[in-house]
Structures are given as C-alpha cells and as structure tokens.
C-alpha cells in the first residue's frame, strides 16, 4: 500500500502543517483501502461453505430474509459501515447477487437503530420514545423502498 507509506512518511518527516495534514489524509485513505483489502481476503473462504452459498441463494429469492439478515448482522456488530464494507466485498467477489445485496443494505438501515435502543434503555421516557421513533422511521423507509425494489433493481441492472 504505497499511499499508506507515503502518508506515514509525510506525517513523520514533515513538520509544516499543510504537508503534515496531507500526510494524515493519505494515511487515512490508505488505511481505509488496506482495511477493505484485508476484509476482502477474510471473506474469501466463505465462498467454499455450502451453507453460506445456500443463504445467498435464499436471500436472492426472499428479500425479507435478506432484510432480516442485514438488520441482525448490523445489530450484532453495531456498525452499519462495517456491514456495508462486508457487503461490498461479497458483491465484488460475486458471492451475493444484486437482488440480495440491496435488501441486506436496507436491513443494515434497520440494524443501526440498535445503538439508539441500547442507549435509551438507561434513559428517560423521552429517550425511549426517540429510539422508538428512530426504529419506526427506519422501518417505514425500508417498507416503502422494498415495495419499489423490483423497479430499482431493474433500473440498476
């Protein structure tokens, strides 16, 4: 990863703030790409698992299952960015079809609400209501988008 090395070089050997900041940007972008590459290497072994292949096929024909898987995975790791990165790797390596990837992405949107729910547990009634509204808002958005899912997939394809 040359961009990562260049960023580190600029950070450590240049004291001028402009060059140092450019180094920080390059190092950050390089770290992002390094992480994506690392994640891609980590998911490759999944392609050989029969259960994983079957799940991907099932999600292609059942968008509700795909939404549930996306929501569950995001709730588990509490990071939609991480699950979207994994989803990108799956799609890039042809491990998941577009018919399954979009509903998983929608499920990620629902799964992000777990953070608000967990934070509201120790909070006031207003905090619990805000978390509930967050869940309902995301659910409504996913339901509306799911209705138009065939049209969206057709337009993207």
Automatic annotation (TrEMBL):
Single biological process term from Gene Ontology: sodium-dependent phosphate transport
Location of the protein in the cell: Cell membrane
Pfam family, one: Na_Pi_cotrans
Main location: membrane
Keyword Lipid biosynthesis annotated: no
GO cellular component: plasma membrane
Coiled coil: none
Cell membrane listed as a keyword: yes
Membrane protein topology class: Multi-pass membrane protein
InterPro entries: Na/Pi_transpt
GO MF term (any one): sodium:phosphate symporter activity
Keywords: Cell membrane, Membrane, Transmembrane, Transmembrane helix
Residue intervals passing through the bilayer: 25-43, 64-88, 100-123, 135-156
PANTHER family recorded: SODIUM-DEPENDENT PHOSPHATE TRANSPORT PROTEIN 2B (PTHR10010:SF46), SOLUTE CARRIER FAMILY 34 SODIUM PHOSPHATE , MEMBER 2-RELATED (PTHR10010)
Protein name per the record: Na/Pi cotransporter
Protein species of origin: Enterobacter hormaechei
């Amino acid at each position: 990863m040359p961009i990562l090395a260049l960023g580190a070089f600029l950070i450590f050997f240049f004291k001028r703030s402009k060059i140092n900041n450019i180094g920080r940007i390059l190092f950050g972008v390089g770290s992002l790409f390094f992480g994506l590459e690392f994640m891609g290497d980590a998911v490759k072994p999944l392609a050989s698992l029969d259960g994983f292949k079957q799940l991907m096929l099932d999600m292609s024909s059942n968008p509700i299952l795909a939404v549930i898987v996306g929501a569950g995975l995001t709730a588990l790791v509490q990071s939609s960015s991480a699950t979207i990165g994994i989803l990108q790797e799956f799609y890039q390596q042809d491990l998941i079809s577009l018919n399954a990837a979009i509903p998983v992405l929608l499920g990620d949107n629902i799964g992000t609400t777990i953070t608000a729910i967990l934070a509201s547990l120790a909070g006031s009634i207003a905090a619990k209501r805000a978390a509930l509204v967050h869940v309902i808002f995301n659910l409504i958005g996913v339901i509306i988008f799911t209705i138009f899912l065939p049209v969206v997939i057709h337009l993207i394809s």
